């Protein structure tokens, strides 16, 4: 005789837990897939672990854990009345009360208790259920889901902060009375974009925009002369003073002035009768879709055909997560990542290998993301568009070791790409043959020649080729000269330049690649031949060519005063490039290596000393002094910009805080315990690598193992191998092949800084260009190839 459903449930009460406040409860998304309560069959919450599973996957959890009791949550759409009224937004927000209403479907939610393996169902709520089950389910339903705790579902504009200069603002009574209209800049004829200084009542025009529009910088010039801190934008003042645009120059931000009524009254301004005639700074930022770059990169205004199916799944923006979405869409177009996490790893396989909490297992979440993007399961039309998948769990686990990526702030796509590859390499450290990140890895060979004529060869590994942009190589110099002449004339006439009149430099990619290979001077180079610091000549070439070559365009440079500036430039990028000529040849006949010891016989390692000029300038920006020294040394004292690029890319290296050592290998390795060396050799590591690792880790075997996995370049003998040929990588984990590549993708950026604005990806697949703009996926009409921030090239011919 079979037990009744209630008797079956009572027999499993020991496997039911009542969640505590500290428990993470998942009830919105499956931890193996992107299934939700709205998916076919609903979502099953394990009443022991509080992890959620879709109908197709809950059986796997039962097989793995034996947990039999689940709460099934199902959401079904309610019928929509035909006369449903439209809601007018009253708040600049998405997904909150008063925000924009996208006429989303309302859903009815139902609950059942399900007992596996036979999927026996019991209704909930029901007074007949055991009290422990009722308490457990009530606690699950009332609790705020872990998904919501980890990622805000609404994207609301940041609240302005009260300025520190408001309460003690000293206003000067110089007889100024501001009229209700007819304003004009005190220094020019500007009648719009005007700012009233709240200290002396003077009116000046605002800042000049990058395209020549806006003001003539007279307001900020007045601040630089007087240091009067606050100004309010005329035309934004109305009876609702909260909407007024108040700017603090010393805080360099839009601020709140709770005493604005009092400050305005000082100059005779009756704000109750004023009408709004100007956009605030925030509104201008929101209005940037009218900007040419914004439209061009997002292909706004184009008839972009929506695409659906396998490989055409969008990613939901979690709030300033486009830097992640654009990069991930490109990465999961490469054969290496498709093979590793989709074709050769099933969801069930990844789940079986995962830890007890698969939401925190990177391998599981990478596999989940790959299947979500590539299977086509979630790329279906919903009201002529697709919803995309939300990469919340992936973001949580990939950002665990990087607090900035855990935040809701915009980040640098390049920095995320490097962090992502680093994490993928670590999770595959025990099986490098499966590591897809190595398809991006390559070895750079650097040749240093000192005035003695002797040379040294060094090697280093990297994932990206960072290229400076030589503006002097622009191919449209005549048009640029004419534009700058017209711009100067318009400035004298106090006239703006139309967007369609703007001319930008066009620099060929070939010129950028040539600048990388060009000889450059390295100052403060210690020569063991001369036994002194000197200036050496450095050239860089490729020791290996990667499967996928990633080019980073240095569009952000430092102006005078160390103010970051974005270069307003186009890069003419060919679809096919051949960099075979950039391969290094290693030590050549007739070349003599710099000696390992100086003339006095002391053991002296040929090394660089960090340029104090570079280090001091980086340290003045707030970077750690030791990190600045390492950045200067690792970029061969090439300059502040190069050192900063290296520093931003290596801030999370496990050895970034290790002291700098210039001792020779002989001195470094002579105190290593031989038993520890043999232990590491038994693990399959080479003897010289084992000695280096133990030396760098204080003899600790566990730390030495971590050091080897985080320093794959160690096996290339990068710091001592001066005789190896450039044709030999020295590292079996680094691919090599011919140097011909075709453009497969680009990531473009809109905005004044890598930490603000928006990122969009364009990928060439199935014979056409496709735009990935968060959850929007469509056939590209005009891919902005000349506006890329990151370019991805794929090797031709394998």
UniProtKB/TrEMBL annotation:
Top-level EC class: hydrolase
Positions of the UBA domain: 609-650, 671-711
Keyword Hydrolase: yes
Binding sites annotated in the UniProt record for Zn(2+): 185, 188, 205, 218
Molecular-function GO terms, alphabetical: cysteine-type deubiquitinase activity; zinc ion binding
Pfam families linked to this entry: UBA, UCH, zf-UBP, zf-UBP_var
Matching PROSITE patterns: UBA, USP_1, USP_2, USP_3, ZF_UBP
Protein name: Ubiquitin carboxyl-terminal hydrolase
Organism taxonomic ancestry: Eukaryota, Viridiplantae, Streptophyta, Embryophyta, Tracheophyta
